[in-house]
Amino acid sequence: MRSFWSAAAAGAASVVAGVGAAELVSAFVVQNGSPVLVVGSLVIDLSPGWLKESVIGLFGTGDKSFLVSCLAVVLLVGGGLAGWLELRRPPWGRVLIAIGGAVGVLAAVTRSGAGVMDAIPSVLAALAAALLLGWLTSLLRGTRPTRVAPIGSVSRRRFVATTTGVAASGIIATVLGELASAGYRAASAARAVFRLPRPAKKAPALPAGASFDTPGLSPVVTPNAGFYRIDTALQVPGIDPQAWRLRITGKVEREVELTFAELLALPLEESYTTLTCVSNVVGGDLIGNALWLGYPIRHLLARARPVAGADMVLSKSQDGWTAGTPLEALTDGRNAILAVGMNGEPLPLEHGYPVRMVVPGLYGYVSATKWVVELEVTRFADATAYWTDRGWSARGPVKLSSRIDVPARGTQVHAGAVTVAGVAWSQHVGIGAVHVQIDGGDWLQAELADAISPDTWRQWRYSWQADPGQHTIRVRATDATGKQQIVAESDVIPDGATGLHTIQVQVV
Asked: Domain span at residue 357?
């Protein structure tokens, strides 16, 4: 057993050191070649939709941290197995490491826009790990190459110290590689000194009655730090704004290219828009409202002049992600913009800096492309996008919905006057009414905060005279056209969840 654990430790330490060396190279030489991130991205791409939804449902915006943690566990366990194999059946341990390196190479070179250079960190990780594994297992064998020799106190101390040093060097290299990630650091520095231009068209001031002073109720404008983030990028792209270009291509009479400076020189407009993720379950928090600054996409498309028959714009992110947006939604006058600002600040890196799309009325998977670099005018019959390739519907209009924020599910409240409050949304249509139901009784009309615009959510509240006991509260929204929220429950796949948010509370 001593030799088993020693061999496993040697294998794990070798893999950690190999990955650390690769992370350093990725940070300073090959920006997009991190073995952990490229393999993680491949896992995301190959995972079935139900698995992605389960992970998002369990971990929300922590889904990427969970994935990286899982990959770290797999690397350690795989390294331990390689060490045991190398001790007992050489060279099979090094063969296993080579297979892992091949997976990294495959993941690196198959990413959108990848080149041969992107495979270098994975190759380096495998070579370094294999060489270190051979060295450490030779120490473990001592001077008798044909069988495992007992490790005396001196040689054991040497082996433990050497293995610990190898592992520590790998950990330090990994941390340094992350800290020195050149692209992200440069983009962060550029953002820090960037100042948003003054809008040519300011958003109207928030109505005085747009927000209720109710503790626990979601603020009408979501702070940047609290805005949900769901995307497929394990590593936030570090884009130099000086090098950023947007290209409008495809079924157009004239291709258009735009630099960041040219975009900033255009008459930018402010608008409040609520964004929603299609993965938002009934009562979920993958939704937020912000003040965006950007330039209407319809004006840029007018320059390009889409040809007859085009009905979709395939937007492409710097990291290869794509979304298919109905051309009509980008040209019908709604505030569909190329955004550069969010709540009075430059876009945060994780929310698309330097430029992203914001389109009212559509779920993010068909519209809200971050780090956008290309708009290809095409047809739904001719092209598909990242999530539609994985079984989601093509157009993705946001569904009318509502949520109870207070009281929180399962909490205790005191008998008497209890404020029930939350938010309701039907982007690009607007909310007309919200009703609350207590214990299956009549639907009771709630008070609505003043609307900002049809493109934003709306706060609501209801004063309930609560009697002691266990109670069930439900909420139902009606949009500005009189359409009521769908009661039947359905999953988020393929085009968004339906059902009424329901909570239970204990009144004492």
From this structure: 224-390
